[in-house]
Amino acid sequence: MAGVCPLALLAPGTGGAVAEVRAGRGMQARLFGMGFCPDARVTVRSADRGSIIVSVGDARYALSKGAAMKILVRCNGEAAS
């Protein structure tokens, strides 16, 4: 069952495809520049209290929980490799 949820709510090791970025114009441009475009595959590598580390494409980024809440993903519920 594939639902849509914020990236910040995914458990480490899981992934999904970006469905939408709900942010202001500046933040949206920054996230798009980092590769968080619709249908891009993202995987949560680790999650801490204040930030999460995600991989998108060949890059890894540390995002604040607030920024990760603005990225909606279609969750597949499977562990990513």
TrEMBL record:
**What keywords tag this UniProt record?**
Iron
Q: Does the keyword Mitochondrion apply?
A: no
| Domain Ferrous iron transporter FeoA-like intervals | 5-75
Instruction: Note the InterPro entries from the entry.
Output: Fe-transptr_FeoA-like, FeoA-like, FeoA_core_dom, Transcriptional_repressor_C
- Return the SMART domains for the record: FeoA (SM00899)
**Gene3D superfamilies named among the record's database cross-references:** 2.30.30.90
> Has keyword Oxidoreductase?
no
What Pfam families does the record point to? Answer: FeoA
The organism's place on the tree of life at top rank: Archaea
Protein name in UniProt: Ferrous iron transport protein A
Q: Show the taxonomic lineage.
A: Archaea, Methanobacteriati, Methanobacteriota, Stenosarchaea group, Methanomicrobia
